[in-house]
């Protein structure tokens, strides 16, 4: 492990030396009229990860037991195409792929095509941002700002994915076919969404059979999903060009917000009763949160977030997930591992479930004699404190500590992140906590 850590830090130093030679670049933007109020813009983003991971017990990598792993991958590779086509009409596309590493599709063809994440059109009914109506394939949603994050501006190395509650289950990487209304009225920022979810049987995985012990997404019937999100902004208004929500403004705005959001889908889940009848249950999520992102003296800045999430997927729902999982399978059996949805190997943890989650993060952009964002540092801490019904008294607490090195703001940055996560085991039919596992990741982000 020591040699791998030295290798990772050496790589970080080399990338810093290379990236300091890059310079700020203007946006790739075409004016469609003389004033520039009508325009079309293209952006590109690449997030490369270099990661050392302590694998969960029983992990196999291509059939071989492996307690530790080192992998290289592309967490996100994206391009955006968007613009104000007329005075009131906005067009937005996003194209790319995610979680591409050596195990991206270990059992099939590695040349899996990128896909459209977003494709939407939006019409502004008011003279300002008071009311916009849009529709298409979009991440716009209720619940939380982290349910629709601007991934190019996130402060921590990755977002709290649990807030994207149905990711790749009844959506396409958190995107749904939706119609929505959004806007800003006074100090209020709102969005209301009606979504047409995809069937769980279309997510590319074998859907679990209906169970008498815990709910899963129903394979029969179809219902629309209703979502809403409301923010009160005490000072500056948040960005409102796209539905995505900024991770950190790095001191360029004074943001102090409180928000509340939710999602509801009737009969989204199913399970068997004791008598063998099929029971349908509603999916209901609610969150309250506060977000602070403010400039401080000496060109420093503070970014902080605290949110409470009540997630209800039905009786005892639990799903494991591992971000860009380095493992491929497990040699554990049903007698010594948790049954249910998701893969328990690699870096997986119980990420989604019926229960309650508190998520918090705080970061501090260190002072500088210069006002720009070149060669700046921002350490951060984050904690996900979850209590899921399926795990009884065993909490799922995950902690991250890291630091960003902004070579040129979010356009070019390095992020080093250490994560500590729980594991669980079953001994003689009893669920117990296993050893905690760690990972150390380096990200190199380029965004233009």
CATH class type? Mainly Beta
How much beta, percentage-wise? over 45%
- Major β-sheet profile: 16 strands, antiparallel, barrel
Q: Give the CATH superfamily.
A: Porin
Helix content: under 10%
Shape designation: globular
Q: Which architecture per CATH?
A: Beta Barrel
Structural domain tally: 1
Helical region count?
1
Rg estimate, integer Å = 22 Å
Q: Mean of the pLDDT scores?
A: 92
Q: What is the total tally of β strands?
A: 25
What is the topology, as strand order, of the major beta sheet? Answer: 2-5-6-7-8-9-10-12-13-14-15-19-20-21-22-25
Protein name: Porin
Keywords: Signal
Organism: Aquirufa rosea
Signal peptide: 1-19
Notable characteristics:
448 residues; mainly beta; Porin; 16-stranded antiparallel β-barrel; 3-stranded antiparallel beta sheet; signal
3D architecture notes:
This is Porin. Residues 1-19 form the signal peptide. Keywords: Signal. This protein is mainly β. The chain has one domain: Porin, CATH 2.40.160.10. Helix content is 4%, strand content 51%. The chain has a 16-stranded antiparallel beta barrel. The protein has a three-stranded antiparallel β-sheet with strand order 4-3-17, with no helix packed on it. The protein has a two-stranded antiparallel sheet with strand order 16-18. A hairpin with a 5-residue loop joins β13 and β14.
How are the SSEs ordered, and which strands pair?
Blueprint: H1 2-19, E1 28-31, E2 39-54, E3 59-61, E4 64-65, E5 68-84, E6 89-100, E7 115-124, E8 132-138, E9 176-185, E10 188-196, E11 216-217, E12 225-233, E13 255-272, E14 278-296, E15 300-312, E16 318-321, E17 329-330, E18 349-353, E19 355-365, E20 374-388, E21 396-408, E22 412-421, E23 424-427, E24 430-433, E25 437-447
Signal peptide: 1-19
Keywords: Signal
Protein name: Porin
